[in-house]
Amino acid sequence: MLPLVDSHCHLDFEDFREDLPAILERARAAGIVAMVCVGSGGDVATAERAAALAVKEPDVYAAIGMHPHDAGKVEPDHWPALAKLARAPRVVGIGETGLDYFYDHSPRQVQREIFEGFLRLAIAADRPVICHVRDAHEDALAVLGAGPLPGAGGVIHCFSGNRDHARCYLDLGFHLSFSGVLTFKKADDIRSAAAYAPVDRILVETDAPYLAPIPHRGKRNEPAYVVHTLEALARVRGISPSRAAELTTANAFRLFNLSLPQPQPSA
After folding, report:
1. Which of 166, 225, 179 is nearest to 205 (CA)?
2. Mean pLDDT value of segment 185-200
3. Which domains, ranges and CATH numbers included, belong to the chain?
4. DSSP label at 215?
5. Cβ-proximal residues to 75 (8 Å cutoff; 6+ apart), any chain
6. Rounded to an integer, what distance in angstroms lies between the CA atom of residue 30 and that of residue 65?
7. Is the pTM of this model over 0.85?
8. pLDDT tens for residues 47-87?
9. Is 31:3 a contact under the CB 8 Å cutoff?
10. I need a labelling partner for 89 at 20 to 30 A (CA). Which of 34, 75, 184, 262 fits?
11. Which strands form 154-157's sheet, in the order they lie side by side?
């Protein structure tokens, strides 16, 4: 059992409403010492739920944002509420935010404007930004390259690009987070990027309930399954799983400024 961080999951989703305590216990039994719950639905309530869960569970932390799918739903009065949440206890990141041109659920120009708004929020709150980029790497790099960028850094979550995209994000100071897609048969470009990235810029995640890794592909994902992604990352880098766990856990703790839960005094 290795100490691991699931750097991106959605424990606030309805998918986990019936059995969240069991999900958390399986994660802890698998060695997960911290989980970043990303509240980024189409309203502020999702961010509030993530923040509340992080207060309740000592090994859960929160990030708050709006997914690019929902960029068209962002209203002006959302920003003050999000700015307040950004400074709430145990909120360690801003996002996910970014660009998704695969589905185009929100107009591309609106996605870019909201992405820029969350970058400004991350700067103001001094939190790292969590970026979702799918089929939009060139535009995302243009937005990020125009700056300014959060001093606290950021991560391209569920990295889906190739080695050249990886190099560009890394040159901007970003981390790369790898999901269960790293285990998929046709993910050679992503594996190449995972082998290329510096050891101090790699994270692992589940994006639960999505993208369950092999051997659980097609099932509901959960934080305990991040061990399979870690094993795949270790293979492509030619290192042991224990070394991969050491690196990715240290990187996640540093990026998100995490701390281990404190032991409770005995009665």
Report:
1. 179
2. 98
3. 4-256 (3.20.20.140)
4. T
5. none
6. 28
7. yes
8. 999 999 999 999 999 999 999 999 999 999 999 999 999 99
9. yes
10. 75
11. 4-9, 32-39, 60-64, 91-100, 129-134, 154-157, 175-178, 202-204
Picking from 36, 28, 11, 22, the residue whose alpha carbon sits closest to that of residue 227 is 28
Q: How far apart are CA 180 and CA 231, in angstroms?
A: 10
- pLDDT of 263 above 50: no
| Residue partners of 61: CB distance under 8 A and separation at least 6 | 34, 35, 36, 37, 54, 90, 91, 92, 93, 256, 258
Identify residue 47 by its one-letter amino acid code: A
Buried b (16+ CB within 10 A) or exposed e, 108-125: eeebbebbebbbebbbeb
| Mean pLDDT score, 153-176 | 98
Q: How far apart are CA 96 and CA 105, in angstroms?
A: 15
Within 10 angstroms of residue 140's Cβ, the number of other Cβ atoms is 26
Provide DSSP, 41-74. SSSHHHHHHHHHHHHHSTTEEEEE---GGGGGG-
